[in-house]
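Working notes for the structural subgroup meeting. M.R. asked for a predicted model of this chain before we commit to crystallization trials. I am recording the input and output together here so anyone reviewing the notebook later can reproduce the run.

Input as submitted:
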Amino acid sequence: MTRFGVHIGLQHTTPDVLRSTWRRVEELGFHWISVWDHFYGATGEPDDATCLEAVAMHTALALDTTRVEVGCLVYSVGYRHPAVLAKAVTAIDLLSGGRAAIGLGGGWAEVEYRAYGIDFPSAGKRLDQLDEAAACVRGLLHDEVTSFEGRHFSLHEARNEPRPTQAAIPIWIGGGGEKKTLLSAARWADGWNIPFVGPDTFAHKAAVLDRHCEDICRDPAEIRRAVNLGLAWDDDSLNQQFGAIAEWVRPGVLSGSDQEVVDRIGTYVEAGADQVNLAVRAPFDLDALERFAAALELS
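Returned structure, recorded in token form:
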């Protein structure tokens, strides 16, 4: 069964608006809600700093919902030590009654790293950090005791207690880098996520992930595959939501009639997606989400 989610940006909004939005999303029948992990807005401009912190809002999401899986796509491994992050998500899992998921990524928003004095190494080093952080998080969330010795992180007979409600909190890795990111997903992830790509690109990246799994003798079917897509019923909505990056995200935006949207989702399912998340930003268009839920008969 294809699952449907909503990925909710934390920029230019308030906790009250977020809380009412994700309650409505759950009522509409979606299976998943996630937040993002940024300190600044997504424009990359140094004065665009209105953005809420992810761990706090992930916790609020867990407390305000009762049924949906609650995640973050994705926590930047440069912002928190993986053990601290594993402890936080364990608490979220306990608070939610076993509905938490954690996404990890290498990070990209240089403006917020620089503003907060956080080291912003090369892309290759950030992806090496991602691989090590994923190994640490997987051990802490899935095993009773974890030891790990890497170049960037280390754990020494580390315990994560109390244990989460779930026996193994799902770990997602986000991104499409074929040499490192998808290899890390094959090694450590329970789910893989990529944003704003067309079905052909999704299929290609999924095939690369499959090959990495085969190389390390892992069953590719163990890894869920999700795509984050925009929802813009017309070009005015597309430009209002995404502004200067509207054309860049267009290949990964659902638009047109209800049937065209349904048919487009079918092409992602055929390409290997078992979860489709709508990526939304404030001001949140609940009417558009309601129309989508009705078209897909979610409730």
